[in-house]
Amino acid sequence: MDERSDKDLAAASCEGDRTAYAGLVRRHYGQVFLVCLGVLGNGHDAEDVAQDTLIKGFQRIRQLRDGSQFGGWIVAIARNLSINCLRKRKTTEKALVPRPPERVGDESGDEDLQRAVARLPGDLRLPLVMYYFDGQDVKTVARTLEMSTSGVYLKLRTAVKELHQMLTAQGDTP
Amino acid sequence: MNKFCPDMQDRIVDFLLGALEGPEVAALEEHLARCEGCRQYLQDLHRQGDALAELGKRVAADTDVRRDRVIRALETVTPGTRVVPVVGGFMRIAVAAALVLGAGVLIGRMTAPEPVDVERLRADLETSILASLKPAVQESVLAGLDERLAAAVASNDAKRQAEVTEQISRELKSLTSNSEQRMDKRFAELIEAIEAARVTDRWQVARALEQIKAQTGAGLRSVAALTSPAPATVEN
């Protein structure tokens, strides 16, 4: 892991240093992927959009004024691209045959839970994924998503309740 | 399965998330101690949270593989050029206004009459003035000469004739010299008027030059007008 700060890595990336940018990718990929997963609710799409996000980040790195803000900046790009992807997907699904129910993770494990998470609205799923999947505390989630702490608590509360309701209705109480 | 108390649901979830303060925690724990439905609900939520955390671990299991895939994909990408930041909507409005004004000025210039070519006009004026004044001067001089000569011839006095001839010669020189000076002065005034008007407004220049042309083009028909002590000034 590159020990340099985000600011130094971003500055070197501006000069075309791919090794420096690779350091930023290693540091922030997890967060970017989680945000994509949280918005999209689908692992495959999240992987694609996360890759697009980080490639676009490298292409646009010279637009970033303060390299120390790389984390928030790249997450914002990830959210925007994920939302765009979601819109395109909805448009396509309206025109084509609906896809089978989404699943957040891989083929193994608790499919009902994966489907229930995938069915949550994106604004509820995103904080839920960051809080439970990555074990982030509420303040970190709030900072990353640029929300108030109370706002994140409210989203999490609703997400937890809705998720439990869906799982109970499926007869699959965790 | 016992149903949880609906009015306690939010507090149970908040408790799970660690959002309750001390007195609220104590009150909830007291309730949980005597309500099996709510205890069960809290246990369900705990299990749900654990299951989510497990799912998160599985999702993150191949993070390194996906991350390395991104790093490999970056090998063909180059960072773009720096983009000048756009300062909000004000700049956009300002740019739009500048474009509209610029377009207006451009259209105005394209549709405006051709500007006056002062240098060319100056040359025309010089020709016109000289052409109109020289015959008048010559006519005047010759007329005066004729009168003097007639008087001299009429006189039989040789001395008188010599004096008249000498005087005619002096006055002729003086008259010619004065006329040339006045012509130069007149011409300089015209040029100054042209320059002043040009600076002020090219339309005024056009009008002034038309007026000047009218005056000089018609010819200053008499030597008196040319050689008078107070020459006519050009009106703009």
- Main beta-sheet strand count, sense and barrel state of chain B: none
**What's the helical proportion of residues of chain B?**
over 70%
Number of strands of chain A: 0
CATH topology of the largest domain in chain A: Rna Polymerase Sigma Factor, Chain: A
Instruction: List the helices and strands of chain A in order.
Output: HHHHHHHH
Q: Major beta sheet of chain A, specifics? A: none
Average residue-wise pLDDT of chain A: 87
Output the keywords.
heterodimer, A: 174 residues, mainly alpha, Rna Polymerase Sigma Factor, Chain: A, Arc Repressor Mutant, subunit A, B: 236 residues, rod-shaped, disordered C terminus
Please describe what this structure looks like.
Chain A is an all-alpha fold and 174 residues long. Chain A has two domains: 99 residues, RNA polymerase sigma factor, region 2, helix turn helix motif (Rna Polymerase Sigma Factor, Chain: A); 71 residues, Winged helix-like DNA-binding domain superfamily/Winged helix DNA-binding domain (Arc Repressor Mutant, subunit A, Orthogonal Bundle). In chain A, α1 packs across α2 and α6 crosses α8. The longest helix of chain A is centred in the middle third of the chain and has 26 residues. Chain A starts with 5 loop residues before the first helix and ends in a 5-residue tail after the last helix. The relative contact order of chain A is 0.12. In chain B, α1 crosses α3, α2 packs across α3 and α7 packs antiparallel against α8. Chain B contains nine helices and no strands. Helices cover 78% and strands 0% of the residues of chain B. Chain B folds into two domains: 69 residues; 110 residues, no CATH class. Chain B is rod-shaped, with a radius of gyration of 52 Å. The C terminus of chain B is likely disordered. With 236 residues, chain B is mainly alpha-helical. At the A-B interface, α2, α3, α5, α6 and α8 of A face α1, α3 and α4 of B.
